[in-house]
Amino acid sequence: MNRADVLAEVKSLLATGLRLDRSPSDIPDDTPIFGEGLGLDSIDALELVVLVEERFHVSIPDEEVGKRAFASVSALADFIATERTR
Amino acid sequence: MPVAAVTGLGAVTALGPDVASLAAGLAEGRCAIGPLTLFEHGGRCRIAAEVPDLPASASHGLPPATARRLSRSDRLALAAAAEACRHAGLEPPERAGVAVYVGASVGGMHEAEAAWRRRRTGADHRWRLSRLVATPVAVSAAVVSQALGLFGPRATFSTACSSSALAVAEAAAAIGRGRMRVALALGTDGLCRLTYAGFDALQALDPAPCRPFAADRAGLSLGEGAGALVVEDLEHARARGARILALVLGAGIAADAHHPTAPHPEGAGALRALRAALDAAGVTPEAVDYVNAHGTGTRQNDAVEVGVLRTVLGTRLRRVPVSSTKSQLGHTLAAAGAIEAVVTVLALETGLLPPTVNLRTPEPAWGDVDFVPVPGRRQPLRIALSSSYGFGGHDVTLVLARAR
Question: Do A47 and B64 touch (CB under 8 A)?
Answer without folding.
Answer: no
